[in-house]
Amino acid sequence: MRERIYLSLAQMGGGEQAFIKEAFDTNWVVPLGPNVDAFEKDLEAFVGEGRHVVALASGTAAIHLGLLQLGVGPGDEVICQSFTFAASANPVAYLGAKPVYVDSEADTWNMSPRFLEEAILDRKAKTGRYPKVIVPVHLYGMPAKLDEICAVAAKYDIPIMEDAAEAIGSEYKGRKCGAFGEFGALSFNGNKMITTSGGGALVCRTGEEARRTMFYATQARENRPYYYHEHVGYNYRMSNICAGIGRGQMQVLAEHIARRRAIHVLYTELLVDVKGVEVMQNPAAEFDSNFWLTCITVDSGVCEATADDIRLRLEAENIESRLLWRPMHMQPVYADCPFYGDGTAERIFNKGLCLPSGSSLTDEQIRAVAGVIKNSVGR
Ligand SMILES: *Cc1c(COP(=O)(O)O)cnc(C)c1O
Q1: Each residue of 139-161: pLDDT tens digit?
Q2: Cβ of 66 below 6 Å from ligand 1
Q3: Digit-coded pLDDT (tens) for 192-219
Q4: Structural domains in the chain plus CATH codes
Q5: Which atom of ligand 1 is nearest to the CA of 189?
Q6: Would you say the CB of residue 135 lies under 6 angstroms from ligand 1?
Q7: Beta-sheet pairing, 98-102 with 133-135
Q8: Around 310, how many Cα atoms within 13 Å sit in the side-chain half-sphere?
Q9: Stated pTM of the model
Q10: Cα Rg for the chain, rounded, in angstroms?
């Protein structure tokens, strides 16, 4: 049996241990410190546009603190992309608010600007209030249709909490994902583009927002000589050890992105002649996905295999692949939430598969994966 090929493994760059050692040597084994500050500076330089970045315990925590600062609370509605990982929407529930799910469009698989506007108008008609925030996602690294989404958001004066957890380094019209919303969330979980073992960051527009984010992330302690609290706080700061890993990862981020994009190009070449199998592509020149994961769609009417058939064939060869995120409006936990759409996300979910895409995979391994796919469709 061949060595297991994983979907998306973390890959260390080599510099991480030196930063961690420094943290030990200087006794900074706490949830703040020089690595945290330096990691944030690295991220700010990377995202650009003068954004401020606060390193946190997870991407989920980043979305939570973004929504909190946008005033989301009990009784509010928040528009979320349905086609995503649950962590995009769960923080809405943490705050006692209700997600309103919007379908995807077929080009990027992300939030449909048309159904977004339909949802906003219908919620206003039904509840008398506009939704409080819009949470678009850049699924698998693919930028959403940001011009259209931002235009709808501006028209109704609703802020955007951008979920860029899968999209560090992705660009839309030459600008980095995460820098479009009032806030943007990044994730450094173990299977993301880069990792801090677990972690995330909130991209903020202003220094004041960054300061508030740190305040809420460190138990909302007021500036007094004794512990004094006017707000409910959270323990969400990134540790100086994790940030040390992050600094090492920032040294190889550009390489990792380039490698994932190269893997996507290779899959595209290898699968171009396989009838019924299509590799998801940037739909136009303004989209530049980091291709965190390369995804395919499988037309079982054409190739007589389903995405899940291919998944099982890959698994039999010790290759990990994964069906796409099951849309949130199809999840029992969110069954009572409103949904606006035409079934696009569900259709894509039913035929999609994520392929092994980790930056440490070799061309040989990618060829092996493509070979099994070809064999499983029998052509
Ligand atoms: C991973 C992920 C998150 C959450 O990030 P964590 O760091 O795992 O909390 C949020 N949204 C999406 C779309 C993700 O893929």
Answers
A1: 999 999 999 999 999 999 999 99
A2: no
A3: 999 999 999 999 999 999 999 999 999 9
A4: 16-252 (3.40.640.10), 254-376 (3.90.1150.10)
A5: 7
A6: no
A7: unpaired
A8: 33
A9: 0.97
A10: 21
